[in-house]
Amino acid sequence: MANITAAMVKDLREKTGAGMMDCKAALNETQGDIEAAIDWLRKKGLSKAAKKSGRVAAEGLVAVAVNGNEGVVVELNSETDFVARNDDFQTLARNIAQVAAGKGEADVEALKAAAYPGGGTVADAIANAIATIGENMTLRRAGALKVGSGVIGQYVHNSIGDGLGKIAVIVGLESTGDAGALADLGRKIAMHIAAASPLALDSTGVDPAVVEREKKVLAEKNAGKPAHVLDKIVESGLKTYFKEVTLVEQAFIHDPSKTVAQVVREAEKAAGAPVALKGFVRFALGEGIEKQEADFAAEVASMAG
């Protein structure tokens, strides 16, 4: 039997909103597999969350830069939050984003090899910052977006400087319409994406493996029903799921009575031309990175010893 720790129970509880004893039971049933435990709770109707949340964040910054009809988001990680407040680190993150935007570059290795302002490469600049600041840093990822005509909307949440923060979003609006109206719409949709965290633009963009997993959960949760009834339940459940996780079908945070798709259609009048959502990039600092939690008191005690 797997060793189920209090930390594992706490993690599962934060991810699902289920009770502590239910989380412990789920982990016992799944031999400590967190992902399987989430599904187990959902099948039992005990999970309050359909999507994973509460991932532990690494430190550093996400940075956004827009160059004409191209935009990029990059994530530069550090060991501590103190470094993220450092002016040199902030300049480094901002410059890397601007280099990426100038090239429309989303490949991290290619970006590291790109020329950095003032001489050398981006990789050289990161190495120099590590030597100067005295803390390890990693250029973890980059995402780029381009439209033929129109605008790249942008938004940074928990901003600590121009284009720098904890969550950064860019969204592409393809249109020949009024640039001012498009920029306003793009910012509002980017704010929505930051808050609602959609998985994809529409249902066709959702990972097929994720869709199959959702179907399996719905089917097992309703096991025992006649096949024709079960098919309808799964179909209806998927429609509800897509409304929750795809951008165009989500209720717009600024006006929940409308979907994002409806808001875009209505904005075409102000823009004076058709508007098409082409895609988005959303980076939340440290998402998906497992970071060991340190016992600060124990650490101080050991240092004193």
Structure overview:
This protein has 305 residues and is an alpha+beta fold. The protein has two domains: 1-56, Helicase, Ruva Protein, domain 3 (Orthogonal Bundle), CATH 1.10.8.10; 59-199 and 263-284, Elongation factor Ts, dimerisation domain (Tetrahydropterin Synthase, Chain A), CATH 3.30.479. It is built from twelve helices and nine strands.
Low-confidence stretches: 49-57
In CATH, the topology of the largest domain is named Tetrahydropterin Synthase, Chain A
Count of the domains:
2
Per CATH, which architecture of the largest domain?
A: 2-Layer Sandwich
CATH first level of the largest domain = Alpha Beta
Shape: flat
What characterizes the major β-sheet?
4 strands, antiparallel
Q: How many helices does DSSP assign?
A: 12
* Quaternary organisation: single chain
Strand content: 15-25%
Q: What is the compact description of this entry?
A:
The chain is an alpha+beta fold. The protein has twelve helices and nine strands. It has two domains: 1-56, Ubiquitin-associated (UBA) domain (Helicase, Ruva Protein, domain 3, Orthogonal Bundle), CATH 1.10.8.10; 59-199 and 263-284, Elongation factor Ts, dimerisation domain (Tetrahydropterin Synthase, Chain A, 2-Layer Sandwich).
